[in-house]
Specification:
This protein is mainly α. The protein has one domain. The chain is built from 6 helices and no strands. Helix 3 packs across helix 4. The longest helix is centred in the last third of the chain and has 41 residues. The protein starts with 5 loop residues before the first helix and ends with a helix. The relative contact order is 0.12.
Length: 146
Amino acid sequence: MEREQPVIAAVGHWLCLADTGEANQYLDDVADTVLTRYIVATPEWATYRKARRERVEALVQARLAMDRNDMDGSRPLWQPLEICEFVAGWVGVTIVSYNWQRDGWEQVWAQLGRIISELEDEAMAPVARVAREANRAMRDDLKNAA
């Protein structure tokens, strides 16, 4: 997979490496892929002003951080204020949280979540396939042993 689909492999590494420092080696590739897929899925991207584009890029970083921080699904999702504080502190971009819905950030955030979920599915598909095959082989072995 590393050679055939390096971006998907990077997503898998970013998802699965327990060490954040090691996983962050792949962050730029993953963020670029998420942004590219967002651009492709957003026909109005060409009409976005520079500031809006920068904010979308910052939201990509925030969404990736939130998802990585909640790999087991046990933590509460970030709310607009937390997201805006993250992008201001981490990326240096200002988004006004009380204008979150009005300015359309809620839709951007949801779309980024869908894109990341699709990438996760693509990255984990080979792992899931191997696990199914191993389970099937184990069941067959147990059946034949009986």
